[in-house]
Q: What sequence folds into this?
């Protein structure tokens, strides 16, 4: 037998899918809306599974409280940007002198992302500091598919210590647009 439990989380975020391409035969028009800076009310559902119950459970639902806290602290009301986005240098003008990311001015996090070192802009007006404190830099185009895979990797690493498998991460970018990645 295999048992599965799931827990759902909501968060607001912004992104830009700079690599978007459309075939107007299928999309009706060629409007590249996702290339614009825009935001969503995202929903993530984490599926945990096991073939061996521990204490009559897959695991306690509270064992995902750390993820809720991480999501709120890291992605909620933040803008996720790919460090390879052609607009990166423009958006990080206080940090970049050319098209490359100066990694010494960013803080790397174990979950596989960077945030700007705010000491670089500490003498700037509040609005500049606020701009950068709301940025999360990743090394992938922040599509639903890639965000789902990233989340699965983060959660699986933590759940390994409990012997629990993350069998799927489901992600709703909008109420009608859904993605799922399975391990």
A:
């Amino acid at each position: 037998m295999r048992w599965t439990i799931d827990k759902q989380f909501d968060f607001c975020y912004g992104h830009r899918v700079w690599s978007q391409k459309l075939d107007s035969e299928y999309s009706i028009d060629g409007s590249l809306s996702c290339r614009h800076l825009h935001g969503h009310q995202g929903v993530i559902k984490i599926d945990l599974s096991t073939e061996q119950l521990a204490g009559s459970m897959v695991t306690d639902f509270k064992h995902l409280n750390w993820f809720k806290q991480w999501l709120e602290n890291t992605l909620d009301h933040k803008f996720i940007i790919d460090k390879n986005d052609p607009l990166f240098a423009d958006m990080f003008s206080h940090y970049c002198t050319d098209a490359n990311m100066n990694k010494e001015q960013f803080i790397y996090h174990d979950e596989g992302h960077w945030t700007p070192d705010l000491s670089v802009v500490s003498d700037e007006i509040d609005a500049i500091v606020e701009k950068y404190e709301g940025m999360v830099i990743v090394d992938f185009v922040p599509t639903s598919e890639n965000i789902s895979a990233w989340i699965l990797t983060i959660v699986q690493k933590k759940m390994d210590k409990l012997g629990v498998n993350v069998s799927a991460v489901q992600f709703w970018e909008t109420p009608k647009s859904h993605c799922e990645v399975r391990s």
Summary: The domain at 3-182 is CATH 3.30.479.10 (Tetrahydropterin Synthase; Chain A). The radius of gyration is 18 Å. The mean pLDDT is 94.
